[in-house]
Design brief:
The protein contains 10 helices and no strands. By secondary structure, the protein is mainly α. The chain has 2 domains: 9-68, no CATH class; 73-241, no CATH class. Bound molecules: fe (ii) ion (FE2) (2 copies). One fe (ii) ion binds at residues 131, 135, 175, 220, 223.
């Protein structure tokens, strides 16, 4: 379903509750009564077109939506992605960690099983943190530098070297390892741990992992399908300035 600005904001949430953290990241808070998406965005000072593009990109997976996102500024997209990182680091991962600790506490696991879950989660956490740090310390600053130079139509020697050594496409494949680890973690809980005494606790952990997976895949899709092509075009245009 395509969400439009005439729809009620509440109906967008009813159509898929996983949009809740997405709309919060876009600076929209709950309590919007029966107002339309356009009205809520105007009142809360949010760019309605950007809002719709992000929401629809989350709900669908076609290229048309990525093209719509391409029309927004790199800065706007990066700022949204940074908020998504904070949401993972400050809210989701600590929450999953608490649930896993509860699961361990109430599952009477053998020492090996206990270590398997604990180590696997910690490894996943480490990898996700490292990935986010790489993006925030290197990739996003590089992206913003490229966009800035592109608009100024000037290319410094230092940036030219960076484009030649680490073009944006060199970072694209980074995501697959993180996705694979999360899949393995789910499988440990689904297939390999003994039947739980309290399945509710394990189901809650799994639900959180599935939700994180969907959110992360939307996030990675914006990085791979929107930022990478956009920056690749800008890199080429910048290099062409020197020819
Ligand atoms: Fe990211
Ligand atoms: Fe990423």
């Amino acid at each position: 379903m395509q969400i439009t600005k005439e729809m009620k904001m509440a109906d967008a949430i009813h159509s898929n509750y996983l949009l809740l953290p997405v709309i919060n990241r876009l600076e929209i808070q709950l309590g919007f009564q029966d107002k339309s998406i356009e009205k809520v965005c105007v009142e809360q000072n949010v760019d309605v077109e950007f809002f719709l593009t992000i929401i629809n990109a989350f709900l669908g997976s076609d290229n048309k939506l990525s093209k719509q996102l391409q029309s927004h500024s790199v800065k706007e997209v990066v700022s949204y992605l940074l908020k998504t990182h904070s949401y993972y680091l400050e809210r989701i991962i600590p929450e999953i960690e608490n649930r896993i600790n509860l699961l361990i506490q109430y599952s009477q696991l053998s020492k090996e099983e206990f270590l398997l879950v604990k180590n696997f989660f910690e490894e996943y956490e480490k990898e996700l943190y490292a990935h986010i740090a790489l993006e925030e310390e290197h990739v996003y600053p590089y992206i913003l530098e490229i966009a800035d130079s592109y608009h100024k139509k000037s290319l410094s020697q230092a940036l030219e070297n960076k484009i030649n050594i680490y073009p944006i496409t060199s970072y694209e494949k980074e995501h697959s390892d993180i996705e694979a680890k999360l899949f393995d973690l789910k499988n440990i809980l689904i297939k390999y741990l003994p039947a739980p005494k309290d399945s509710h606790i394990r189901n809650r952990v799994l639900t959180e992992l599935y939700t994180l997976e969907q959110d992360l895949s939307d996030h990675a899709r914006i990085e791979n399908m929107v930022l990478v092509p956009k920056i690749t075009e800008m890199e080429a245009a910048l290099l062409a300035l020197k020819k």
